[in-house]
Specification:
The structure is a single chain. By secondary structure, this protein is an alpha/beta fold. Helix 2 runs parallel beside helix 4. It is globular, with a radius of gyration of 16 Å. The longest helix is centred in the C-terminal third of the chain and has 13 residues, at 168-180. The protein has helices at 2-6, 22-33, 44-47, 57-66, 90-97, 113-122, 133-136, 142-150, 168-180, 187-190; strands spanning 13-16, 37-42, 70-73, 103-106, 126-129, 157-158. Strands 1-2-3-4-5-6 form a six-stranded parallel β-sheet. The mean pLDDT is 93. Strand 4 (103-106), helix 6 (113-122) and strand 5 form a beta-alpha-beta unit.
Length: 191
């Protein structure tokens, strides 16, 4: 918390879900009371929980009540959750069920970016975040789809680096170089 307080214009703190159950929910509620938590982060494939799992409902309710966004890691990999339960289209159901929640699809749906874009375009409470993917997919055809989606989302696009896997300065420079080539890209709303 100290680093985020010292550099509050650049950093914020969040609560990263590490499990399910009463103990984790109580911990989340305690952290919310500090007024320092600015987001809830959920890695479905790491926690082993599908985004639509009813066990997540109390976390969604607390985050929504606190007015903080819920950030989902949208990479589809691993063997803990069936891949179809991690696909970006599941967030359409969440956005409908929780219209007052702010949902952020981290990594913009990864290789399923066009599905993630469709969900975000259908719901004003869904944002795309582009950390990691602009480096990870370098040289892959899907990078063109990610850049195309970035140019279509209109003011609901969030920048992130996924530090420490990608250095903040290097990823920022890579991102600036890539978006400089996008015709009509709204740099002001992104940066």
């Amino acid at each position: 918390f100290a680093l985020a307080e010292k550099y509050s214009e650049r950093f914020s703190t969040g609560f990263c879900l590490t499990g399910l159950g009463v103990g984790e929910l109580n911990s989340f509620e305690r952290h919310l009371k500090t007024n320092r938590v600015r987001f809830l982060k959920i890695h479905p494939r790491q926690v082993g929980v599908a985004p639509l799992d009813p066990a997540l409902e109390p976390f969604f309710q607390q985050a929504t009540q606190a007015g903080i966004p819920i950030i989902f890691d949208t990479y589809i990999r691993g063997d803990r959750v069936p891949h179809e339960e991690l696909a970006p289209r599941v967030y359409d159901r969440l956005a409908r069920k929780h219209p007052n929640a702010t949902l952020v699809l981290a990594h913009a749906g990864a290789h399923r970016v066009l599905d993630a874009l469709a969900v975000a375009q259908a719901h004003a409470n869904v944002y795309l975040e582009v950390s990691h993917v602009l480096g990870y997919f370098d040289g892959a055809a899907v990078l063109d789809d990610i850049l195309w989606a970035m140019n279509k989302i209109d003011k609901r696009l969030i920048y992130g680096s996924d530090f420490p896997e990608y250095g903040i300065k290097d990823y920022s420079e890579r991102t600036r170089r890539l978006v400089a080539e996008l015709p009509g890209f709204d740099h002001k709303s992104f940066w």
